[in-house]
Amino acid sequence: GGRVNTDAIDNSAGVDTSDHEVNIKILLNAVVANGDLTVKQRNQLLAEMTDEVGALVLRNNYAQNVAMANAVAQAPSLLHAHQRAMRRMERKGDLDRELEFLPTDRQVKERLAAGRGLTQPELAVLLAYEKITAADELIGSGLPDDPYLQRLLYAYFPLALRERFPEQIDAHALRREIVTTVLVNDTINSAGTTFLHRMREETGASTEEIVRAQTAARAIFELGTVWDEVEALDNRVPAAVQTRIRLHSRRLVERGARWLLNNRPQPLELAETIEFFAERVQAVWAELPKLLRGADLDWYQAILDELAEAGVPGELAQRVAGFSSAFPTLDIVAVADRTGKAPLDVAEVYYDLADRLSISRLMDRIIELPRADRWQSMARASIREDLYAAHAALTADVLSVGNGASTPEQRFEAWERKNAPILARARATLDEIHGSDAFDLANLSVAMRTMRTLLRQHV
After folding, report:
1. Would you kindly state where each structural domain of the chain is located, as residue ranges?
2. Whole-model pTM above 0.90?
């Protein structure tokens, strides 16, 4: 019971204030040494920045407590992942479960049987260790020097310093450490305690590659703006509604990061990747209410109605309702680039196919698969990524039929005529699978093989 975390969480504002004070004084001492400020002017400037430093610290504190609320909401469902993360840190010598009062494997098994997850203080310990180990791995990489991330260095300091002493900020003795700390906080606060561990399991990528992908995904989907708007709803909508929105946005970013890891050259060039995708993705996302069909449109409308009833403003509700259908915009932009088609033209065909072949229904069944251990998680992720890839490839196939003036319906009908026999057999198999009482890896694997038979007609 209660809302106690650990001292590291509940007292984090004091530590953060001290860190800001030290880093600001390092900067200003260099300015004084260069003769650009007197000691008296330095002290006056420090006093003038007190309120802004307090606001910066409280914002960090808020974000970390949001991360804790999200972790508590998912604690039972992610206990297996928490267990695997603890085991990894133990193997590396970074964690002593007994010393930190974290549950043993036997105790984890008992909690799994009871449907309980880690407690709030236990989650706080795990959050702290994840941040420490991630920072240790990133500080030795080239990521803190990435030009795109220098904005994090500037945002760390009060406005007066950013305006008057940008060169001194660039030359700060601890600039790499500051960027690393901010980046780790941003990544784990937004993605969750088990994110890095699960991405390593599923993709084999390094911590640097994963953080690059997650940073790019956040920027491409412009979720910083969404999170600011959700924060503005404090005490206006139930906290549970805010948590649900944040968890849905986390799922979108996670899928986006995984897609970037699997489909783009590594390590990602952050600025280049974001520039390539962001504007095109946003253009398609804005048109989702017109693009979605059938079950996807029904789902979108149901979420929209639910959010509106909870008091979420219209524009934000529309954006959140599109989360589940926004992830494929990455595939859509990639197909548009390969085929030379406009992203919106590709999107029309993509979402039309999702309805006609019940692809979204199949994806829902895949998401329902268990992930009680690493191998189930990896099998689930593999079949899910296979379906997304098949959907994108089928979209390109349909786009290759007809002419520039053809509607999505006309293109599909022409493609259907061209592939009638194999499409009829595929539909019969998929209908049989959808009519089954149980969905497991076996029948979903058959469904994926059926989807691939459609593709083999075009290779």
Report:
1. 328-459
2. yes
